[in-house]
Amino acid sequence: MKKLRKKIVLGVFISATVVFALTILIVAIGLNAEITRRADSMTLLIIENNGAVPLKSEIDKMGDFKLYNFNEESPFRMRYFTVKYDKENHVTANVEHIASIDEGKAITMADAVRSSDHKTGESGDYRYRVNADRDMVVFVDYTYEYNSVDLLTIMLSLLATVFILLITVLFWFLSRRIVKPFEENSRMQKQFITDASHELKTPIAIISANAEVLAYKNGESEWLNNITTQVTRISELVNELLTLNRLEEVDEISDIEAVNLSELTENTCADFEEVFRSKNVQMNCDIQPDVTINGNTDQLKRLVSVLVENASKYVTENGELRVMLNKELRYTTLSIYNTCEVDPDGDYKHLFDRFYRPDSSRTSSTGGHGIGLSIAKRITVLHGGSIEAIPSDDGLTFYVKLSNKLKIRKKGSES
């Protein structure tokens, strides 16, 4: 359940981060847009007032201009400059209301703005506007307001970071209570499977023994053969459920040793060679020699056996089996391909779910229970890897990645 807790906390962390980031982004964009709107309104007001900022009482008489937080002192605090052009193209620059711009720079900036096709825009730290006759250019400095928004954004970001960390830590402790019912339910399910499997073993053994006695006394018959076959299937199902249950009870492997995966894979393929030969299947094995990884020998045998056995069940007559094993830097990769009927609309991600089958009608013909691939996936996860089923036009490939970084650890030793 530790993984479930991590997923919950990660989900909360990502959600909180996205919400805060979007909120800060919306606030920053909104404030910058409002400042830009106010700057453009001010440039228009100055042009309408022939190059000067009017008093508040005069603005109130105009009626068309509604400037937020504009008072009688605002005209004296406003930082702006204007450049006018007469009919003879004589230039007059008014820089009385700004200290950082001289007449020469003001004229240079105005000439650059007039040569463009834009009516409003930004020039450095200033918002500008050109009048309709293009004989006056007004520049207004709203740097302080923009810097205030930047500072506010930084402060909100720092505050959001603190909140996100606090929320994440809080949910880490709360997640223990959140997952407790799921943990208890999972424990009860696993206990039920274990208890039920053990309880089933006795009647299965009795039925099997009685069938053998009847066959000995009365001779074999179709009905006794059916009983024996089904008892064997139920016994295998019980054993697989117990195996999967035991694998799901642990989060890591306690008995890790060096395993020659090349030899293990070759021996497993040899065990099924007769099955493939009976279907006239062409076997191609490209196994890198002496591939050794650290892992649990029994589990890795079960993993390869499940995949090869699955291929033997579903491979088409006169088809092909391809087994490839390669050791790379971080992972050892095993791929097992077999020709088979492929459903183009099939969802092969669910092949590793318990009892899942793309085609339920194939259950009786293949004799499987739909648990083997679940066991294979769990073994792969315990070995720090991943497994996936990749369909193609004429077959299916199981692609397994096993970590090369597991350390040798004997059962009962400290991790």
- Radius of gyration in whole Å, from Cα? 38 Å
- Outline, from the CA principal axes? elongated
Q: How many separate structural domains? A: 2
User: Which ranges are low-confidence, i.e. pLDDT below 50, for 5 or more consecutive residues?
Assistant: 360-365
Give the mean pLDDT.
83
Helix content range: 40-55%
Q: So how many helices?
A: 11
Q: Going across the major beta sheet, what is the strand order?
A: 2-1-5-4-3
Strand percentage = 15-25%
Q: What is the ordering of alpha helices and beta strands?
A: HHHEEHEEEHHEHHEEHEEHHEE
According to DSSP, the number of beta strands is 12
Main β-sheet description? 5 strands, antiparallel
Ends distance: 19 Å
Return the structural class: alpha+beta
Give structural attributes.
single chain, 415 residues, alpha+beta, Heat Shock Protein 90, 2 domains, five-stranded mixed beta sheet, 11 helices, 12 strands
State the gist of this model.
By secondary structure, this protein is an alpha+beta fold. Helices cover 54% and strands 17% of the residues.
Architecture overview:
- This protein has 415 residues and is α+β, with helices and mostly antiparallel strands.
- The protein has 2 domains: 2-148; 257-403, 2-Layer Sandwich (Heat Shock Protein 90).
- The protein is 54% helix and 17% strand.
- The protein contains 11 helices and 12 strands.
- It has helices at 2-48, 56-62, 74-77, 103-114, 143-218, 222-248, 261-271, 273-278, 297-314, 363-366, 372-382; strands at 80-85, 91-94, 120-123, 126-130, 136-141, 257-260, 282-287, 292-295, 320-327, 331-339, 386-391, 395-403.
- The strands form 3 sheets. Strands 2-1-5-4-3 form a 5-stranded antiparallel β-sheet, sandwiched between helices. Strands 7-9-10-12-11 form a 5-stranded mixed β-sheet. The protein has a two-stranded antiparallel ribbon with strand order 6-8.
- A hairpin with a 3-residue loop joins strand 9 and strand 10.
- The longest helix has 76 residues, at 143-218.
- The chain is elongated and about 125 Å long.
- It starts with a helix and ends in a 12-residue tail after the last strand.
